[in-house]
Structure prediction request, 265 residues.
Amino acid sequence: MTAFFWLFGALIVVAALLAITRRNAVATALWASVAFVGIAGEFVLLRAFFLAVVEVLVYAGAIMVLFLFVIMLLNLRERDLRLTEAPRLHWVGLGLAGLFLFALVLTCRRAGLFDEPLVVRPEAAGETAQLAPSLFQAYLLPFEIASFLLLAAIVGAVLLTKRKLS
Amino acid sequence: MTAGHVVTLAGVLFTLGMLGVLARRNILVILLSVELMLNAAALALCAFAARAGNLDGQIMVFFAICVAAAEVAVGLAIVIALFRLRETVNADQVDLLRR
Prediction:
């Protein structure tokens, strides 16, 4: 359990680090999809099985294909893919990041999150059969709103990418 | 493995996404870094749901993934429209409202 946590954690951190440092946008997208697979692994360790499947299907699958399609569609030239970027915000960002992580670990320590090992109770395991009742009863309205949101996004995306509106 | 470990891992991932947004100028990479940050939040929510012993956090992650899918579709459509208009994906060259 713990060994897998460190394995997937290292995978996520290394893949995310490579994703934000590669100059080529295609390499960025592919490394990000590796990070998403690592997150799916962490979901399995937290017994969120349904979310792990959704993560792989939606993120590593659909969203990454969309990204790669757009990169292909834009037909970027070499100089667009390898933008020379001024390192203005690097040090500000690193400072902010260190401060944020320090505050986060301190808060977790104070809240006692490091005290006891995480044991997921059977009723908190996110299998489809256990998620469905609350998704289709208590959260039915948000579920329907989410479907409308996706429909609106599809229509909006088609409208935005059309050349002429007539 | 405690809840604190998972939340710290989510924090590291969030930080990496934030650095990506701050340091990179390619609009596609910025969008992808935002996705990494969203995933970090999802991981933290899942950890807290496991600690609290109920499924509400996981339902919230499910809705967050729905919204992220919509956001990516519209965001990439905007990138395509922008590229058609300005022939660039560099966020620094898109400063029409700043002039």
About this structure: The helical segments of chain B are 3-23, 27-52, 56-86. Chain B has a mean pLDDT of 89. Chain B touches chain A through 70 residues (CB under 8 Å). Chain B has one domain: 3-88.
